[in-house]
Design goal:
The protein is mainly α and 280 residues long. Helix content is 56%, strand content 0%. Helix 4 crosses helix 7 and helix 10 crosses helix 12.
Length: 280
């Protein structure tokens, strides 16, 4: 028997462990953490992580990031403070975040904290009023009138915004009419667009990320939508239903006409044949 077969299960465990440990901490941070945290760019939903090791000891941080809710449930006062500062938002457990990877992430944060500017400082979004041209460009990107540079899907394939179009947008994702308010402003919204954290969007945009010159106009459009007020009026689904109903009616009429003609084409020879048979 081959040695590799004898120790096969152990080799498999070793290979799987190697794959898990091979996860690049920078890629993991970019895909899972930048929607709520920066390193040196200020608070988003969660705290700025620059020099976080000076605010709490490493073992506490490693335990917290792996399972935040467990730390909160234990009544830890620092964990409770973090939740309060985040306005009640609890950091979720991140799939694939092992204790070993947590240590690698803390190493990454320590290194990035010492740089003049971290690669995870986040986008710089001005407080100036957006121009009508920026809002219009954001609408074009949202509706597909302008293609995303990296080939990502059109926003309306999954989302809608009040008044976006006659048929509205998709319903796989939430209505984004008030997304600007829910995410508490420009910076949080921009960070969310830079690295969408949802299970549906994350794998789609991992290799097709939005560019900064696309994020800015999208933020402008969604801010304008929120300021306009209201929520989606659900006209899209009704219009889509009516369009589908009308299309079905037209299809039935066409089908009926073609089938009627086909029925006559078959019936006439049969009638003619029966007539000749009766004369004989």
């Amino acid at each position: 028997m081959s040695p590799i077969r004898t120790i096969g299960p152990f080799v498999l465990i070793w290979v799987l462990a190697g794959c898990a440990s091979a996860q690049d901490p920078a890629d993991f941070f970019r895909e899972n953490c930048t929607n709520c945290h920066t390193i040196g760019g200020g608070r988003l939903t969660g705290p700025d992580l620059k020099n976080v090791g000076a605010r709490q000891n490493r073992s506490w941080l490693a335990e917290f990031v792996v399972n935040p809710q467990a730390m909160i449930d234990k009544g830890d006062p620092y964990a409770a403070k973090l939740v309060e500062e985040a306005r009640g938002v609890v950091m979720p457990r991140v799939a694939g975040l092992t204790p070993a990877l947590a240590q690698s992430l803390l190493n990454l944060i320590e290194v990035e904290s010492k740089l003049p500017k971290s690669q995870f400082a986040g986008l710089e979004i001005s407080d100036r009023p957006f121009t009508p041209a920026e809002i219009a460009r954001g609408r074009a990107l949202f509706t597909g009138g302008r293609r995303l540079a990296n080939g990502g899907p059109v926003c309306t394939s999954c989302h809608t915004v009040r008044g976006v179009a006659a048929l509205g947008g998709g319903r796989l994702g939430p209505d984004l009419t008030q997304a600007f308010g829910r995410l508490q402003g420009r910076k949080n919204l921009a960070s969310w667009l830079l690295a969408p954290p949802t299970p549906t969007m994350q794998p789609v945009f991992r290799k097709k990320a939005l560019r900064s010159d696309e994020i800015l106009p999208l933020v402008a459009y969604l801010e304008a939508s929120a300021k306009a007020g209201g929520a989606d009026d659900s006209a899209g689904p009704l219009n889509f239903f009516l369009l589908g109903l009308g299309g079905t009616a037209v299809a039935l009429i066409v089908f009926g006409s073609s089938w009627k003609a086909r029925f006559r084409a078959v019936r006439r020879p049969l009638v003619a044949g029966n007539g000749k048979g009766s004369e004989a």
